[in-house]
Design the sequence.
């Protein structure tokens, strides 16, 4: 009886060992595509995070250099607002672009993977499903909010240093606006253009100078649907600006009255779009 049990056990064990294991099961086209899509999402997220870290480091270095020039007096007071906008906004736009473009690139990656496999993109990889692409977008949004908060704090530090070092002759007021929301990851269609129509300001600055040439200077810069043109309204002054190769715009106005509130907004060149981008108080020394 004992020997029979050993033989039986050996036969049963051999039968169990001969069964296919989960790892040995043949992959399906659907599982292969999903695996590739998840890897693409992870890769794109990592690229965006690395690119933003590099851009942010350079941006903060530029702010340190510019603040030093303001404090030691080598930066001309009248040029501070427009130079700060001109130097900083491209970096801010790049921070946003690093996350915005990854949405488009990820959508194209997923579309290409499923198109090559002649499969429909599953619900879990479609926007609004609460699946992987929505989670990716939420992480990118959270990262943008964190970067924007750090940047706003750094700009405030620069403004405080400028006002302390030039007390009585110059005052600077600065406002950093939140980045626009990211679009959904539309993986069920080929990715389209780089930017959609969303003129939005990233940075607004205003300053007042004392002396015989006492005047205020308001500057604004940020994102613009490239290569569209828009009108930036400084009260009754309405300069037209165009999108650059870097998808940025910048507008400046001098001669504003200190101790006044400058309302800023944008329209397109046909007045069919009105985008409120805020206002800023022009201080007096």
Sequence:
């Amino acid at each position: 009886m004992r020997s029979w049990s050993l033989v039986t056990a050996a036969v049963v064990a051999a039968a169990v060992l001969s069964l296919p294991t989960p790892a040995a099961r043949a992959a399906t086209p659907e599982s292969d595509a999903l695996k590739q899509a998840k890897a693409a999402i992870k890769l794109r997220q990592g690229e965006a995070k690395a690119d933003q870290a590099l851009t942010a480091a350079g941006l903060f270095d530029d702010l340190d250099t510019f603040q030093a020039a303001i404090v030691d007096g080598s930066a001309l007071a009248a040029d501070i607002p427009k130079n700060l906008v001109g130097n900083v906004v491209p970096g801010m736009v790049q921070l946003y672009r690093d996350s915005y473009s990854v949405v488009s690139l990820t959508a194209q990656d997923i579309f290409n993977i499923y198109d090559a496999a002649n499969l429909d993109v599953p619900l879990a990889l479609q926007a609004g499903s609460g699946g992987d692409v929505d989670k990716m977008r939420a992480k990118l949004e959270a990262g943008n909010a964190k970067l924007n908060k750090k940047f706003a704090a750094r700009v405030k530090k620069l403004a405080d240093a400028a006002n302390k070092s030039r007390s009585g002759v110059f005052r600077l007021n600065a406002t950093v606006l939140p980045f626009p929301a990211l679009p959904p990851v539309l993986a069920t269609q080929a990715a389209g253009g780089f930017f959609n129509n969303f003129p939005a300001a990233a940075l607004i600055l205003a300053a007042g100078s004392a002396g015989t040439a006492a005047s205020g200077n308001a500057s604004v810069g940020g994102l613009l649907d490239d290569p569209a043109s828009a009108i930036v309204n400084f009260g009754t002054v309405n300069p037209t600006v165009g999108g650059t190769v870097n998808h940025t715009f910048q507008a400046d106005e001098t001669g504003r009255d200190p101790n006044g509130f400058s309302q800023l907004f944008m329209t397109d060149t046909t007045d069919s779009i009105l985008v409120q981008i805020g206002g800023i108080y022009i201080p007096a020394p």
Q: What stands out?
A: The CA atoms of residues 108 and 194 lie 12 Å apart. The longest helix spans residues 29-71. The longest strand covers residues 200-209.
